[in-house]
Amino acid sequence: xxxxxxxxxxxxxxxxxxxxxxxxxxxxxxxxxxxxxxxxxxxxxxxxxxxxxxxxxxxxxxxxxxxxxxxxxxxxxxxxxxxxxxxxxxxxxxxxxxxxxxxxxxxxxxxxxxxxxxxxxxxxxxxxxxxxxxxxxxxxxxxxxxxxxxxxxxxxxxxxxxxxxxxxxxxxxxxxxxxxxxxxxxxxxxxxxxxxxxxxxxxxxxxxxxxxxxxxxxxxxx
Length: 222
Description:
Layout: H1 2-12, E1 18-22, H2 28-36, E2 41-44, H3 47-56, E3 62-65, H4 74-77, E4 83-87, H5 90-103, E5 107-113, H6 126-134, E6 142-149, H7 157-177, E7 186-188, H8 195-200, E8 205-208, H9 210-213
Parallel strand pairs: 1-2, 1-8, 2-3, 3-4, 4-5, 5-6, 6-7
């Protein structure tokens, strides 16, 4: 079943758009089913669960961390993450830089822009992100790879489209104004309910969980 859902999405998804299968809250058996169907890119949002799965599952999996990351949990995530999609504050970014310096590692990240109408959603505003890009040379152990955002939890497709268009505008502005950020190529927007709109709005990464793995009895499932 998981393999069939995965295949259906991949058949519709443009080849230029990367699929992160959001496996948070789902057992390793489900991840292995998707893995055996050919999926290699998975996303998690809880550090302990992320670390446990990264250690025990096949080592050619490309792990993305997509949730709010507390600075005291970096050691559970950064050794295994191919991409941290959710740098949602300057404080977190500074901590990641310090970790990279101590461990002689370079960390690939996306800067998370606050898009949705809900104040509970994480993310920085446009000016905060632009200032980080201006100061990028101050983070020699961070590789800035693009932007991430979450649209409002709404059935209003026009609102979702407007929010995705806003982050796309910032993404293009940064690419134009900061050519020194050579790896700034990824725009991660779109989840199970709105990924098709995200693709129309220029997504290079979509994060899909429920449409692949089904629902779990936890809040905020993708």
